[in-house]
Every structure is written in C-alpha cells, then in structure tokens.
C-alpha cells in the first residue's frame, strides 16, 4: 500500500465512523427526547385526565409502540439493505426517523384537537420506530464491514457511542430549557424545541452519509452471488436459531437503558419529588460512565471476544439488579447517582460489543436483516415493556422489585450468549 492509499483509507474510515456515530446519535436523541417527554410532558398534554398513574401508563404505552414498529422496519430496511446496499437504505431510514420526530414538534395537544392528538402522536411514534428499525443494523454494518483486521469490535462500538451522545444532547437540551423557561412556558411551547432541533442532526447525518460508498464486504458478496430474493424468508429458514439467540442476547441492554433513564426519570420526579433539573443533571453525569464502558468493552472484545464481554456484563447486571430498587427507594441523591452510574456502566458492556457480535452471526447477504431483526425484537422484550412493568411493580409491591426486571433480562441474554458460544 502506498502512502496515498494509506491516507485515503484513513479518511474513508473517519467518514464511515462519523456516519455510523451520527446516525445512532440521532436515533437515541430522537428516542430519548420522546422518552423524556413521555415521562414529564405527554401524560398531561396528550392523554385525557383520569389519574396521574393512568396518564403515565398511557404515555408509556405510546413509548412502547415504536418498539413494536421496529421489527417491521427491520424487515423492510433489512430487505433492501441486503439486496440493494447499506448506504441508500441508511439514508432513507434517517429521513423517516427524523421527519417523524420533527412532526411531533408541531402536533396540537389533547386540549386543542381532542382524541386526534394521541392518535396522531401514536402514528408518528410508529413512524419513528419504523425508521429506527433499519437504523442500528445498517450503522453497525457500515462500521464493521469497513473495519481493518483485528478492529471489528472497536469499529463496531461507534454506533453504540451514539447512545450517550444522543442522550447527552437530549437531556442537556431539556435541562437547559428547564433552567431558562418557566414551567408554564416549558409546558406551553418549550418542550417542542428538542423535537424541532432534531432537523439539524438529521441534515448533518444526511450530509455525511451521502458522501459514502458501499461497504467492501457487501460489494464483494454481491459480485460473487446474487442476493436472496426475500432475505427475511431465507433468514428464518436457514438461520432461525442464530436470530433467536441474537434476540435474547440484546434484551439486557434495552432493559437497563429504559429502567435507568425513562423509568427512573418518571419515578424520581413524581414519587420521589426530586426537582426535574436536578434529576436530569444526575442522569447526565451517570451516562458518562456508559460512554467510558462502551470504549472499554470495544477494546476488550477485540482482545478476547464480543461474547465473553457481553457475558460478563450480564453477570454484573444480575447482581446490580438486586440492589437497584432499594437504592432508588432511598430517595437520596448520592445513592441515586451511584446506582444509575453503575447500571449505565454495566450497560456499556452488554451494549458496546453488539456491533461486532450480531453481524458475525449471519452471512454477509443476510446481515442487515439478521442483525436488525434480532436487535429490534430484543428491544421489544427488554425495552418496550420496561417502564410499564416497572410502574406496575411499584403499584403492586413497591420499588424494591424494579431491579429484578434487569436481573431477569440479563439471565435471558446469558441464555442467548450461551447458545451462540456452543454453535459458533
């Protein structure tokens, strides 16, 4: 390789990593501004009043709706991603996801248009989920299929770094708005600004992605043999076991994320009566531990294996889940910060290696479908029901049992990891 070739490869890698990072940053920004609004704002503005708990449960139901749409998005975008290519599919998924988020920022409330408000909100949430269904898998493949030898896990961790980046942008903006606006202005119009601001991130993501070329591995596989006519059908007939195991392996990371973020925010600001800005600041500090552990997990996975790192992360989560509920129940700021930091630190180890782990379960021409389908089905089990089940557990038994949801999710993920380690 000449010096010119080396410089060209370096710049190509930087563009690829930036494109995979910005896409998942937009994904988590969009997803988390909705999760934050679903905890703080949407219950009162978009759902008819009966009781605060019923409003919150209805709002969390709309949050879960996107998880149900994600497997459909995975099937649609996976189909075209495996047949046409990664680049074009990622551009379309980003536009659908960003457009749905932007439209929420213009949506009238229940007081203005009645039942049309929650109905349209749910349709836009479904659109978010549809676009998101094709986003993560394509971003992961964009990274790992361009990785040099021995760097797949470290390249594959870049889409995962989009999670803390998007979270910090979302929570930071809500925190800033809460500091500069009165509660009346925040509920009247201030909450719309984060949704409108998504357009800036989407334009940046499109500008980067339109400059990309197709991944070398996909181009080589397509030149060698035509892609399957229906990738999902081929996946289910020839790699069903891997798809199920991959789905189980993903459950833990979603459970941690939505318990430690969406549920914790709703519980902390309502049941514990902690000031919204204080709790957002606690979560912003805790998410930095997740960013750190994602980087550590990528480095560790390249030196051992993604399966080993994911397994140890799940073992740690089983133990953490036992103390999560009691720590939350204290209502004291220091224990809250420590337990949220520990939960999100462990999430880095059950999330960071997924970019290398899931694509390796499937052949190149089924990877987009396989990785996307497993990731998004795991999201339903681990993430869609997490805030709802946690709220129900509190109503039935108190906060002490909430962490057991994460322990159970980690046990499910360990089962999936065990299967793939036996059949690799």
UniProtKB/TrEMBL annotation:
Where does the record place the Major facilitator superfamily (MFS) profile domain?
A: 16-424
Pfam families in the cross-refs: Sugar_tr (PF00083)
Keyword terms of this UniProt record? Cell membrane, Membrane, Transmembrane, Transmembrane helix, Transport
The Swiss-Prot or TrEMBL record annotates one GO molecular function as: transmembrane transporter activity
User: Which topology term describes how it sits in the membrane?
Assistant: Multi-pass membrane protein
Residues crossing the lipid bilayer are 21-46, 58-78, 90-111, 161-181, 193-210, 240-266, 278-301, 332-353, 373-395, 402-421
Q: Which domain of life is it from?
A: Bacteria
Quote the SUPFAM superfamilies the UniProt record gives.
Answer: MFS general substrate transporter
GO CC annotations on file: plasma membrane
InterPro entries xrefs:
MFS_dom, MFS_sugar_transport-like, MFS_trans_sf
| Residues of the signal peptide | none
The protein's location, in the record's own words, is: Cell membrane
Which named protein is this? Answer: MFS transporter
């Amino acid at each position: 390789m000449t010096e010119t070739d080396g410089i060209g490869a370096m710049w190509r890698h930087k563009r690829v990593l930036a494109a995979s990072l910005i896409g998942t940053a937009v994904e988590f920004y969009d997803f988390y501004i909705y999760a934050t609004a679903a905890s703080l704002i949407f219950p009162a503005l978009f759902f008819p009043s009966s009781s605060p708990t019923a409003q919150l449960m209805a709002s969390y139901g709309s949050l879960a709706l996107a998880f149900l749409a994600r497997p459909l998005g995975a099937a649609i975008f996976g189909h075209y991603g495996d047949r046409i290519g990664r680049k074009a599919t990622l551009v379309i998924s980003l536009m659908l996801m960003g457009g749905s988020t932007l439209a929420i920022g213009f949506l009238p409330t229940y007081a203005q248009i009645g039942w049309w408000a929650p109905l349209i909100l749910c349709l836009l949430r479904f659109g978010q989920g549809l676009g998101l269904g094709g986003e993560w898998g394509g971003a992961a493949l964009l990274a790992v299929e361009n990785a040099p030898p021995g760097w797949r896990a470290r390249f594959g961790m870049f889409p995962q770094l989009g999670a803390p980046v998007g979270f910090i942008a979302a929570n930071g903006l809500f925190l800033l708005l809460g500091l500069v606006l009165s509660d009346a202005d925040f509920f009247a119009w201030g909450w719309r600004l984060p949704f409108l601001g998504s357009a800036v991130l989407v334009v940046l993501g499109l500008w980067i992605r339109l400059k990309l070329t197709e991944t070398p591995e996909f181009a080589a596989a397509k030149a060698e043999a035509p892609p399957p006519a229906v990738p999902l059908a081929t996946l289910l007939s020839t790699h069903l076991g891997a798809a199920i195991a991959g789905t189980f392996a993903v459950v833990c990371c979603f459970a941690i994320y939505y318990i430690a973020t969406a549920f914790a925010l709703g519980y902390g600001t309502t049941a514990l009566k902690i000031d919204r800005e204080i709790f957002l600041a606690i979560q912003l500090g805790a998410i930095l531990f997740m960013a750190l552990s994602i980087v550590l997990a990528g480095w560790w996975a390249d030196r051992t294996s993604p399966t080993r790192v994911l397994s140890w992360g799940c073992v740690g989560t089983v133990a953490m889940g036992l103390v999560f509920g009691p720590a939350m129940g204290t209502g004291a700021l220091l224990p809250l910060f420590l337990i949220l930091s520990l939960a999100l630190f462990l999430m880095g180890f059950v999330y960071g290696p997924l970019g290398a782990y899931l694509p390796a379960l499937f052949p190149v021409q089924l990877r987009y479908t396989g990785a996307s389908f497993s990731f998004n089905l795991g999201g339903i089990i681990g993430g869609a029901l997490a805030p709802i089940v946690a709220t129900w557990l509190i109503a039935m038994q108190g906060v002490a049992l909430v962490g057991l949801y994460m322990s159970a999710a980690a046990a499910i993920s360990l089962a999936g990891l065990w299967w793939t380690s036996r059949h690799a």
